[in-house]
Every structure is written in structure tokens, then in C-alpha cells.
Design brief:
Elements (H helix, E strand, L loop, with lengths): L1 E6 L2 E6 L9 H10 L3 E4 L4 H9 L2 E2 L4 E2 L3 E6 L10 E6 L18 H5 L8 E6 L4 H8 L1
Parallel strand pairs: 3-6, 7-8
Antiparallel strand pairs: 1-2, 4-5, 6-7
């Protein structure tokens, strides 16, 4: 449930999130519209390039030392205001290289780069820690 209050600096909203009160898609859209996270096109190879070159990556084994959070938007739509995937790449995620060999099969990053319909809002988690294990930890 959202609550709003007026203070000296302006309007503040607070959203208490639970299983019975999930985060509104409108809040995710506000985060996307704010432009505070990297915005990556779903052009083939762009997400892989971004993860490989812009992550805090262990060069010895190509695993992420820190998580990454960014938006992926549909190429030609110029930003996530028209639909997005909010992507959390977990610490420990392995990325072999900045490019993919032609004979390799489809992987998670290829799936991230699939078409994003107009107005689409999706949250994607890739890496080691699953949502199911996080929910069990909270019990």
C-alpha cells in the first residue's frame, strides 16, 4: 500500500512490499523513466557486451564480483519508457566473453535480447541465487 506525505523537500511515496502487496508496475515504470540505471538495447550482442565490459568481473574466471542492475529496451524504441526488462545479474554469474561464437546454442543472455513488446514490463534475475531460495530464507 502506498502512502504519500508532503515534507519540506516535496512529495514522498513509501511502498511496503509483501506477497499480498506486490510492487506496482507503475513504480517500476517510474524507476525506468528516471534514467538512473544503465539502459541497454536488445540489439544482438549488446547485453553480452555490457555485462562483460561494464561489470566488476574477476578476470581470472570471468565471474561477476558484484551484481549488476540495468534496463534492457527494444532497439528502435529509444529507452525503457516504451517497455523494458529490468535485469539483475547476480554475483558469481559466469560470462565467457564479450562476444558469442556462431555455433553456440541459445543461452540466458540471448533470451534477454529477445523482442520486448510495446509497454512490456518484466523483471529478470540471472545468476546463482534464485527467488525461491530467497523466499525460503525469509520464512
Amino acid at each position: 500500500m502506498a502512502s504519500a506525505s508532503q515534507n519540506v523537500s516535496g512529495l514522498m511515496e513509501s511502498h511496503i512490499i509483501s506477497v499480498s502487496n506486490p510492487l506496482s508496475p507503475a513504480v517500476l515504470q517510474q524507476i525506468a523513466d528516471a534514467g538512473v540505471l544503465d539502459e541497454i538495447s536488445n540489439f544482438p550482442g549488446a547485453v553480452r557486451h555490457h555485462i562483460y565490459w561494464h561489470s566488476n568481473r574477476n578476470n581470472a574466471d570471468n565471474t561477476l564480483l558484484k551484481p549488476m542492475l540495468f534496463f534492457i529496451y527494444q532497439t528502435t524504441r529509444h529507452g525503457p519508457q516504451n517497455g523494458f526488462r529490468l535485469c539483475l545479474v547476480q554475483k558469481g554469474f559466469f560470462i565467457a566473453s564479450a562476444t558469442k561464437l556462431e555455433d553456440e546454442g541459445e543461452d540466458d543472455i540471448d533470451r534477454l535480447e529477445r523482442e520486448i513488446p510495446q509497454g512490456h514490463k518484466e523483471v529478470v534475475l540471472i545468476g546463482l541465487k534464485s527467488v525461491a531460495s530467497s523466499e525460503r530464507e525469509e520464512d
